Amino acid sequence: MAFENNKITKLFNIEFPIIQAGMIWASGWRLASAVSNTGGLGLLGAGSMYPEVLLEHIKKCKKATDKPFGVNVPMLYPNIEDIMKIIVDEGVNIVFTSAGNPKTWTSFLKEHGITVVHVVSSVKFALKAQEAGVDAVVAEGFEAGGHNGRDETTTFTLIPMVKEKISIPLIAAGGIATGKGMLAAMVLGADGVQIGSRFVASDEASSHINFKQKVVEAQEGDTMLTLKELAPVRLLKNKFFDEVQELYSKNPSVEQLKVLLGRGRAKLGMFEGDLEDGELEIGQIAGLIHDIKPAATILKEIIDDYNIALENLRK
After folding, report:
1. CB neighbours (10 Å) of residue 164?
2. Which of 267, 294, 297, 270 is nearest to 204 (CA)?
3. Do residues 278 and 268 make contact, with C-beta atoms less than 8 angstroms apart?
4. 286 contact partners, CB below 8 Å, separation of at least 6
5. Distance of CA 142 to the CA centre of its chain
6. Helices marked H in the chain
7. CATH H-level superfamily of 7-206+289-314
8. Which residues of 104-131 are buried (b: 16+ CB within 10 A; e: fewer)?
9. 27: closest CA among 222, 229, 266?
């Protein structure tokens, strides 16, 4: 099935309304270019990159694909001015912002001809993003891996509620890893989908093989949202997660939680492969991910699954 009249494929000039999420420690140039080359939109995850590392990944991505790709920028990280300057200087024309106020950077990016999308977890923030002038929003339910909304609104309830209130294109995220999930999100009002966890278990993801294997082994119930007092994050249960739970039983202060978290925990787990002491961020949908394969294969399987599901519904 063709998506030529789809708002998301038109906005980004891509073949399929599928965006690969810009995840920390997973979304380097290899993954982004592979997804873009197969007709989706690949995103570089700037959250785990120093400015000079991001610059290197943008340059390599340009060499690896002549198709559109973008950069995901979590606004809570330092070096944001340097990162935005690199994006503009390198002529990247799609930016997904998250974890911050969309008003801060949207007008600057738009002035440089950049298409801006903001990631939200509630109707309130979707409206703020629209007001700030973004071109589209990603509405992410609390099933999603990594940093998450505090309200615990699920994707299935969030998408129609956001759709009811905004007039700009809507991308659904959180708990989507199959064509059936994509179709369900689009029936609820999404114009496209952003997929993270499924692409973590891809050959091209820059995350450690130990972490990828752990994702494949995960079952329903193996992830949980925690550390809400700092920034809510969905993690696979492991030794570090157990330590967090144990600390919670003692009614800890925010400072005590910060001390336990320390620095570089996500890198330790997802990039360096320490499955005990690292932070392992992944979505609930991990229970439906059973293999590691090339990103192109994953994307093609999602589209095939979507078309079969659509045909079955029509029958």
Report:
1. 9
2. 294
3. yes
4. 145, 197, 215, 218, 222, 223, 236
5. 12
6. 7-12, 29-37, 51-64, 80-89, 106-111, 123-132, 155-165, 179-187, 197-200, 209-217, 239-248, 254-261, 265-266, 295-314
7. Aldolase class I (3.20.20.70)
8. ebbeebbeeebbbbbbbbbbebbebbbe
9. 266
Compute the distance between CA of residue 15 and CA of residue 176 in angstroms, rounded to an integer.
Answer: 19
Measured in whole angstroms, the distance separating CA 306 from the mean position of its chain's CA atoms is: 20
Q: Are 196 and 23 in contact (CB under 8 A)?
A: yes
Q: Under DSSP, is residue 148 helix (H, G, I), strand (E, B) or coil?
A: coil
pLDDT at position 227, please?
Answer: 93
Distance of CA 57 to the CA centre of its chain: 17
| Whole-number Å distance between alpha carbons of 211 and 272 | 9
What 3-state class would DSSP assign to 58? Answer: helix
Strand order from edge to edge, sheet including 223-226: 146-147, 233-236, 223-226
Q: What is the pLDDT of residues 207-255, one digit of tens each?
A: 999 999 999 999 999 999 999 988 899 999 999 999 999 999 999 999 9
Q: What is the pLDDT of residues 15-62, one digit of tens each?
A: 999 999 999 999 999 999 999 999 999 999 999 899 999 999 999 999
Q: Contact, 297 vs 190, CB < 8 A?
A: no
112 three-class SS: coil
Between strands 223-226 and 233-236, the pairing is antiparallel
Report how far apart the first and last C-alpha atoms of the chain are (Å, whole number). 16
Domain limits of the chain? Answer: 7-206+289-314, 219-285
Q: At what angle do helices 295-314 and 179-187 cross, to 10 degrees?
A: 50
Length of the chain measured in residues: 315
Q: Are β-strands 136-140 and 170-173 bridged in parallel, bridged antiparallel, or unpaired?
A: parallel
